[in-house]
């Protein structure tokens, strides 16, 4: 039997049969700031980034309903003259990615972040059409992320070059390697190194990869499960094929979601029941906290 220190939470989760679906944390906006020095367990908070910059970015993100600050880098020893800063908004109708190259971290203080999120035309020249591919590699937060994430990042960088980034903790160590497709906010888990080439080919073709999908972070977990079930049923894998009309919790553990197909305006209604299983898994490799496995049961109604 393996000793506890030899066990990885991601392997234990997979062995327990825990589903990936619906596990992406609800996030509408991501602030991605390059930081090339060593990352601590809380990579942004404990970084050497000037305090006034950390305070402004942290305060602004906390003022929003669902936003997250991540630090990013390309390779462990890379040094750049310019500092990259991206803002990704994950709206399923009009996802956007703004890119900035800063001479110093203090230049971030001059950006009107609220205007950026609202699509202000002053920043139209900063919009980037090329997506980003992020792999969580915050080993000091959880060893699964470094053990399984870094090889995937290396293979990814060989294929997509500067569109590939390492990122800090995004939630869900036990689903490592975790992989983000920005600006769509599509989060994938258990991405295998041997599958990275066809995986990237499908993403670059504009497809969602259902077998590795954790969820679209613009949606709450039950709605992520509804989108997954809809795509399973229709076979439609286009990233921008549908948009959410509404996703509501009607009563505790019971959700209703309506999607519209962008090409035809056809509507689909789905009901989702959230079930907390008695089975538990460890949340991280520290093996000090367990959480119940959550299951989603989705039923469909006739499309209009």
Structural account:
The protein is of the alpha+beta class. The protein has a single domain (1-218), classed as Glutaredoxin (3-Layer(aba) Sandwich). The protein contains six helices and 13 strands. It has a nine-stranded mixed beta sheet. Strands 10-11-12-13 form a four-stranded antiparallel beta sheet, with helices on one face. A hairpin with a 6-residue loop joins strand 3 (83-89) and strand 4 (96-102). The N and C termini lie far apart (55 Å).
Layout of strands and helices, then pairs:
Elements: H1 9-15, E1 29-34, H2 51-63, E2 67-73, E3 83-89, E4 96-102, H3 113-117, E5 132-136, H4 143-160, E6 164-167, E7 179-182, E8 186-188, H5 196-204, E9 213-216, H6 221-234, E10 242-251, E11 254-261, E12 267-282, E13 290-300
Summarize this structure as a short list of keywords or feature phrases.
alpha+beta; Glutaredoxin; nine-stranded mixed beta sheet; four-stranded antiparallel beta sheet; 22% helix
**Overall number of strands:** 13
N- to C-terminal separation?
55 Å
Can you list the strand order of the major beta sheet?
4-3-1-2-6-5-7-8-9
Report on the biggest sheet.
Answer: 9 strands, mixed
Q: CATH class, please?
A: Alpha Beta
CATH architecture: 3-Layer(aba) Sandwich
- CATH-wise, what's the superfamily? Glutaredoxin
Average pLDDT, rounded to a whole number, is: 93
Tally of DSSP helical segments:
6
Number of domains: 1
* Relative strand content: 25-35%
Rg over CA atoms: 19 Å
Helix-strand topology string = HEHEEEHEHEEEHEHEEEE
**Anisotropy-based shape:** globular
Low-confidence stretches: none
- Helical residue percent? 10-25%
């Amino acid at each position: 039997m393996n000793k506890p220190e030899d066990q990885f939470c991601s392997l234990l989760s997979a062995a327990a049969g825990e589903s990936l679906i619906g596990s992406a944390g609800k996030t509408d906006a991501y602030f991605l700031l390059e930081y090339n020095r060593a990352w601590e367990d809380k990579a942004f908070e404990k970084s050497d980034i000037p305090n006034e910059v950390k305070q402004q970015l942290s305060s602004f993100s906390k003022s929003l309903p669902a936003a997250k600050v991540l630090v990013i880098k390309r390779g462990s020893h890379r040094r750049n003259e310019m500092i990259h800063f991206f803002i990704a908004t994950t709206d399923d109708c009009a996802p956007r990615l703004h890119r900035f190259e800063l001479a110093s971290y203090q230049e971030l203080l001059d950006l009107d972040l609220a205007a950026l999120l609202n699509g202000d035309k002053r920043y139209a020249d900063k919009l980037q059409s090329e997506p980003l591919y992020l792999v969580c590699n915050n080993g000091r937060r959880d060893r699964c992320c470094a053990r399984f994430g870094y090889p995937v990042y290396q293979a990814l960088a060989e294929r997509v070059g500067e569109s590939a980034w390492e990122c800090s903790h995004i939630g869900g160590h036990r689903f490592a390697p975790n992989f983000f497709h920005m600006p769509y906010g599509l989060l994938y888990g258990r991405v295998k190194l041997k599958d990275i080439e066809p995986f990237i080919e499908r993403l670059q073709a504009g497809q969602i990869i259902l077998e590795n999908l954790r969820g679209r972070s613009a949606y709450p977990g039950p709605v992520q499960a509804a989108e997954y079930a809809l795509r399973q049923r229709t076979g439609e894998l286009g990233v921008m094929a549908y948009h959410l009309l509404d996703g509501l919790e009607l009563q505790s553990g019971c959700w209703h979601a309506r999607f519209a197909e962008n090409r035809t305006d056809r509507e689909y209604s789905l009901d989702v029941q959230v079930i907390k299983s008695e089975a538990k898994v460890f949340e991280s490799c520290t093996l000090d906290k367990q959480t119940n496995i959550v299951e989603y049961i989705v039923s469909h109604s006739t499309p209009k």
